[in-house]
Write a structure and sequence with these properties.
The chain is mostly helical. The protein has one domain: Serine Threonine Protein Phosphatase 5, Tetratricopeptide repeat (Alpha Horseshoe). 43% of the residues lie in helices and 6% in strands. It is built from 19 helices and 10 strands. The chain has a two-stranded antiparallel ribbon with strand order 1-5. Helix 7 runs antiparallel to helix 8 and helix 15 packs antiparallel against helix 17. It is globular. It is found in: Cell outer membrane. Belongs to the SusD family. Its main location: membrane.
Length: 512
């Protein structure tokens, strides 16, 4: 691997120094304000909740938010939502670890972490999402609880965002920690906490968890109907609709799928699809980027529905999604642990599909790098030291794919073909290149939509959700380091985390 001997020692020193950058001092006041006292203050000035709600969003991109050892572990795969997007993409086998020089993700790539209830990899997402839930419940409690009468628009908007964030967290937990996803509805999968006053709550069924998720999102959609958010960091009604579409598609009744179509239509009326010039890098004869709107690094991209506006004040460096994924960032992907696309998935991308150019079979790194999809604009290897490239959480193209999937699952092949061709028209130079879609029906069409979901959303943390929804097996391609060619069913133990063993110590009622 290019210059690896030079980089390893220097990078190891940098990683050690960076891990010591935060003191983790207790900055909480010695005299805590009670919920009742905070309720009274918020009645006088609802804007006092700004900090709490902003903290919910900050947690999504801060490092070490899944740490369960009071700041002592500091794993470099622990950096909020995008960290677990990598986890889930690796579980779905579409994203793989190209080398094991630093060790991050090795046990996940081996499918060992999912079966080890004592591993930090198993505990981190559980800890992170319940941290989000606790913070959301704190806002809800201060506003008077789940069934509070809300006095004005400000408090309605805070409540709507808190309930949407709580639902978001439960939805990801319900996918990552439930082998069958929704399953029959009777499987006990998670404890439901809807107030900070609850403790030692027993497991609830998947039906109960999804009822809570969908109820929260329905309420959020209503509460945020007239909310004009200050930026795309915040959840508004369109984000709530997108999250609700995902939850309904996962539960998957005919009534749910009908709602998915309506919800995604509403979002697509607001947000355009990602354009060809935004999807892939175009380089001139000297290798210089000619379309700076590409790179999936700018929250201002019109198709982005939800994301994080990362600035220098965000204080992100090598412990970040960009650090783990982008060779143009000074971190792991560049220095020795690149991430590749599964070669069988790459081969399935048609030659005239512009998304084929998102990946570079780079001999210096030994595999299919996503250098045409995710990259820092300067495109200098190891160049971005302090992260200012943004994080994407949701974009309009997801809604087209969910819409097409819902239609084919309902038996509306014609509607599904029309929908998926809206996306493919942006990915192929000619309609003749995707005319084959018109010949597909039934399960063949469903499989094609699933394939297009994997291609379009590669590296964005959405393939795992589609795998669980569609009850689809995964097969590791020939370029994986471990378990090459092996196939795993969607509900195999290797593909789903188990409830962390430490949780049973804290909660004696946590039995299945």
């Amino acid at each position: 691997m290019k210059n690896l001997k030079i980089y390893v020692s220097a990078f190891a020193l940098l990683a050690f120094a960076s891990s010591c950058k935060k003191s983790f001092l207790d900055e909480q006041p010695s005299e805590k304000v009670s919920t009742e006292q905070e309720q009274e203050e918020v009645k006088k000035d609802p804007k006092l909740l700004d900090a709490r709600v902003s903290g919910l969003y900050t947690t999504m991109y801060e490092d070490f938010t899944g740490d369960f050892t009071n700041g002592t572990t500091q794993n470099h795969d622990d950096f909020g939502q995008k960290g677990y997007d990598i986890y889930s993409d690796m579980l779905s086998a579409d994203l793989l670890l190209g080398a094991t020089n630093y060790g991050w993700y090795t046990n996940l790539e081996r499918y060992q972490s999912t079966k080890n209830s004592a591993s930090s990899t198993d505990y981190q997402p559980y800890r992170y999402y319940y941290k989000i839930i606790y913070a959301a419940n704190t806002v809800i409690d201060v506003l008077g609880g789940n069934n509070a009468t809300l006095a004005n628009d400000d408090v309605k908007h805070y409540m709507g965002q808190a309930k949407a964030m709580r639902a978001y967290a439960y939805f990801y937990l319900a996918n990552l920690y439930s082998p069958k996803g929704y399953g029959t509805g009777a499987e006990k999968i998670l404890p439901i906490l809807t107030s900070t006053n609850q403790a030692e709550v027993p497991m609830s069924t998947s039906a109960q968890v999804y009822t809570q998720i969908i109820s929260d999102l329905d309420q959020a959609n209503s509460l945020l109907a007239d909310f004009t958010r200050p930026d795309k960091n915040h959840i508004d009604s369109y984000v709530a609709k997108g999250l609700l579409a995902y939850a309904l598609a996962a539960r998957g009744t005919n009534a749910d799928l009908t709602r998915v179509i309506s919800l995604t239509d509403s979002v697509l009326a607001k947000y355009p699809l990602t354009t060809p010039s935004e999807v892939v890098a175009n380089l001139d004869g000297s290798g210089h980027l000619t379309n700076p709107q590409s790179g999936f690094n700018n929250i201002a991209t019109p198709s982005w529905i939800w994301g994080a506006d990362i600035t220098l004040s965000s204080n992100l460096d090598l412990v970040s999604w960009w650090g783990q994924m982008d060779i143009f960032t000074y971190s792991y992907a560049w220095a020795g642990d690149p991430k590749f696309i599964d070669d069988s998935l790459y081969k399935s991308i048609r030659p005239t599909d512009i998304r084929k150019k998102q990946f570079d079979d780079n001999p210096d790194y030994g595999g299919l790098l996503p250098t045409g999809k995710f990259f820092n604009e300067n495109r200098e290897e190891g160049g971005q030291r302090n992260i200012t490239d943004d994080y994407i959480y949701m974009r309009a193209d997801e809604m087209v794919l969910l819409n097409a999937e819902a239609k084919v699952r309902l038996g509306d092949d014609g509607g599904a073909r029309t929908e998926i061709k809206l996306l493919l028209a942006q990915r192929f130079p000619s309609a003749l290149d995707y005319a084959y879609i018109d010949l597909l029906t039934g399960n063949d069409l469903k499989e094609e939509i699933y394939l297009q979901t994997r291609i379009e959303l590669w590296g964005e943390g959405k393939t795992y959700l589609a795998m669980k929804r569609n009850k689809h097996s995964v097969t590791k391609g020939s370029n994986h380091l471990f378990l090459v060619g092996e196939t795993f069913q969607y509900d195999a133990p290797e593909l789903t985390f188990v409830t962390p063993s430490g949780e049973f110590l804290y909660n004696p009622n946590l039995t299945k």
